[in-house]
Amino acid sequence: MRHQVCIIGGGPAGLLLSVLLHRAGIDAVVLERKSRDYVLARIRAGVLEQGLCDLLRQAGVGTRLDHEGQVHDGTLIAAHGQRIHIDFRGLTGKAVTIYGQTEVTRDLYAELDRIGAPVIHGAEEVQIHGADTDAPHVTFRQGGQGRRIDCGHIAGCDGFHGVSRQTIPAAIRQEYEHVYPFGWLGILSETAPVHPELVYAGHERGFALCSMRNPHLSRHYLQVPLTDRPEDWTDDAFWDELRRRLPPDLADGLETGPSIEKSVAPLRSFISEPMRWGRLFLAGDAAHIVPPTGAKGLNLAASDVHYLSRALIAHRQGDDSLLDSYSATALARVWKASRFSWQMTRMLHRFPDEGPFLARMQAAETGWLAGSRAGQTALAENYVGLPW
Ligand code: RFL
Ligand code: PHB
Q: In angstroms, rounded to a whole number, what is the distance separating the alpha carbons of residues 185 and 222?
């Protein structure tokens, strides 16, 4: 089998890249280890920057987003006794859109079906060969049978645990990692959001976030020790703890109900450089992970895909300059978003191993933010997304 581009991983990065390439007349195949149902059952990000929304429209998958996505002009930060409304629209002229990653993925699959672009599910033991040569190929097993794809370029969109990054020799790879000493316990419930905007709450008991997917579906998170498992938390215990961490008026209005999903995710910052080795290009979580506090994971995957798709399109027209600058261009944005996610995490969580000094620094930071238009503008500018 031969395809111009072989995309490893059928998460949002791989699927979006495939749609964009096909629209430009480039033939790409996606290899995904799991089933489509499995991929669509994953509950993840919910906040889309304008850049990602525009890219989805450009990919021809913006219709449902424009109907069902909720535009949020601001967010509420309730921390250390302060209640700070960050007016994205007033401070930056931009907003974010609430639309679940699951829905983005569903729309991308529908579009790939419509245009007849191949996605191979159940691809096991994927291996990349000759990425540093002019004739790379990928092998895998499907239903017990060995298969091979010859291609011009390979896009490694297979997430943090994928094979693509590991294919780059260790001597070439430089990895930067910061692991946080806690995780987020998240639940999805068929309840009304507690507030029209997202609420980021910093409390001495730990961080909490009230998010949503639509007016009848809420997504809430609590900072928990890394040792906690979802089954350690009953729904009642979750709601009780969330109430304790919210400002009293919001806690009083909190609608509770049974959880329909519950999971714990560890928090880490991770960046692997470079994002290119020969004809292999990494995009999304395969190259970097951010803690979810700044809602940047999915959005960074999208900016990588934007840079990579335009570089592969330029290559077909005989121009390799964008492929050559891909890694540096993508990483420059990745580092800035990682800094923002790290700083938001640092400002709002309880760090169990650090003493009262950090707590006072956090209080000073939120106190400053509450009274500073410059501080709020800086936060808003990063939250709505730095330019691509
Ligand atoms: P994905 O979504 O991880 O997709 C990678 C795909 O590659 C497949 N795969 C392989 N396929 C073939 N062969 C292999 N060897 C393979 N290994 C893996 C996987 O099955 C999968 O389908 O990466 P992508 O496309 O780069 O997208 C990135 C986003 O998914 C990610 O940044 C965000 O979801 C991060 N993230 C969150 N971001 C937010 O902004 N807000 C959130 O609330 C939020 N919650 C989360 C998250 C990430 C999580 N992960 C990865 C553990 C919650 C979780 C649990
Ligand atoms: C979510 O809705 O899942 C969500 C929103 C904002 C974040 C992280 C997750 O910062």
A: 5
What is the whole-number distance in angstroms between the Cα of residue 284 and the centre of ligand 2?
A: 17
180-266+352-384 to CATH, choices 3.30.9.10, 3.40.630.10, 3.40.120.10, 3.40.50.300:
3.30.9.10
Pocket mutation for ligand 2, best pick of 221, 222, 300, 341 (most atoms within 8 Å of C-beta): 221
Q: Whose C-alpha lies nearest to ligand 1, atom 29?
A: 298
Class of domain 2-72+95-177+268-345: alpha beta
Q: Is the pLDDT of residue 214 over 90?
A: yes
Q: What is the pTM of this model?
A: 0.97
pLDDT per position as a tens digit, 135-193: 999 999 999 999 999 999 999 999 999 999 999 999 999 999 999 999 999 999 999 99
Token pair listed for 335: 């580092």
Non-local (6+) Cβ contacts of 221 within 8 A are 184, 185, 186, 187, 207, 208, 209, 211, 292
- Give me ligand 2 centre to Cα 277, in Å: 32
Question: What tens digit of pLDDT does each residue of 76-135 get?
Answer: 999 999 999 999 999 999 999 999 999 999 999 999 999 999 999 999 999 999 999 999
Cα torsion 155, 160, 164, 166: sign: positive
CA of 26 to the centre of ligand 2 (A): 34
Hey, whose CA ends up nearest to atom 6 of ligand 2? 295
